[in-house]
Write a structure and sequence with these properties.
alpha/beta; Ubiquitin-like (UB roll); 3-stranded mixed sheet
């Protein structure tokens, strides 16, 4: 009897399980391409281990994390940072600081008022007044505090002088006050009801009462009389009495004196605006339909009515500037005979 040979035992259980798994896999729906690749990767991996998906991406992320950690690693030789909490708000400390600032300002002001005193007063721009008159009018005295003498009040006192137009007061350390004034360049002589002459600015401010000799040095206003004029007052025109009329006749249309005064002031302002200062001897508004200017001894200028006064004054200046010094006569700038043309009639 032949001895019984021991044949290697096959792993029937494992074979049976593998067969069953194969049957189940064959019965399932075929997977997509990506799923098939992942199954192939799992089947090719050693038993008990799973192959991670996208190994290269994960390795790159790990390297990046290690590099960032190495870069942010603190330097052992660098000084240590110590965090100290903010100090709480102290109202007492704030009040102490404000008190200190106020005390310093008061000390500086007091020091300036004590050590800087007025010793010199200079005056610039005065023609009709001398420096002593301006100083007395200002109220500033030697020994006053250089910073506390009241600059606004002093300017108001000086400007109350009749011929003063503007005032500026400055200081120069350590002891000087400088007063700069401008006087009215041109004044106009106007008569009142009694025949007395008064000087008036282009703004209608009454400056002073003068005699005939002083009035002759200024532009004379003809056709307007002042009503109760006074210094530093606004000029008011005296209305003329209406002319007598026969019974049954309609009242004639009259021009008010206030309209004539308004025309005078407009002409005066335009003369100063275009530099015709002191060259016009008289302004005659007796007839508002025929306003006349006497330009020195050379020209009698006809402006016509009170319309386009600025344009007419500008044309007058331009025409006279283009003429020779020896020429004289009459200039018609009324634009009634020939529109937009100046008519020049030479003097015989």
């Amino acid at each position: 009897m032949e001895p019984r040979q021991n044949k290697p035992r096959s792993n029937q259980r494992g074979t049976t399980q593998a067969a069953k798994q194969g049957k189940r896999a064959g019965a399932q729906k075929p997977a997509s391409g990506g799923a098939q690749r992942r199954s192939a990767a799992r089947s090719s991996a050693p038993a008990g281990k799973r192959t991670p998906a996208r190994t290269s991406d994960r390795e790159a992320a790990r390297r990046k994390t290690r590099r960032r950690t190495a870069e942010t690693k603190p330097d052992p030789q660098a000084p240590r940072v110590v965090y100290v909490p903010a100090a709480p708000f102290s109202r007492g400390k704030l009040l102490l600081q404000l008190t200190t600032v106020v005390a310093v300002v008061l000390a500086l002001t007091f020091g300036v008022s004590i050590f800087f005193r007025v010793k010199n007063i200079t005056v610039d721009g005065a023609v009709k007044y001398n420096a002593w008159e301006i100083q007395q009018a200002s109220g500033i005295r030697e020994g006053d505090g250089l910073m506390t003498f009241g600059r606004t009040v002093a300017c108001g006192k000086i400007k109350s002088l009749p011929y003063v137009d503007t005032v500026r007061i400055g200081i120069k350390l350590p002891d000087t006050v400088n007063i700069v004034i401008t006087e009215f360049d041109v004044l106009y002589a106007v008569r009142d009801e009694s025949g007395s002459r008064w000087l008036m600015t282009a703004d209608g401010k009454i400056i002073d009462q003068v005699d005939s000799a002083l009035a002759a040095d200024h532009t004379e206003v003809i056709g307007v009389r002042l009503l109760l004029p006074g210094k530093d007052q606004e000029a008011q025109a005296l209305e003329d009495a209406p002319p007598a009329q026969a019974t049954g006749e309609s009242a004639p249309q009259t021009v008010r004196a206030s309209d004539r005064l308004s025309a005078v002031l407009s002409i005066a302002q335009y003369l100063e605006k275009y530099g015709v200062i002191g060259q016009v001897a008289s302004i005659d508004v007796t007839n508002l339909g025929r306003i006349e200017l006497q330009y020195g001894q050379r020209f009698l200028v006809q402006l016509g009515d009170a319309t386009q006064l600025e344009y007419k004054i500008r044309c007058m200046k331009s025409a006279i500037d283009e003429m020779e010094d020896y020429e004289s006569g009459e200039l018609d700038i009324s634009f009634t005979i020939r529109p937009d043309e100046i008519i020049y009639t030479p003097q015989n």
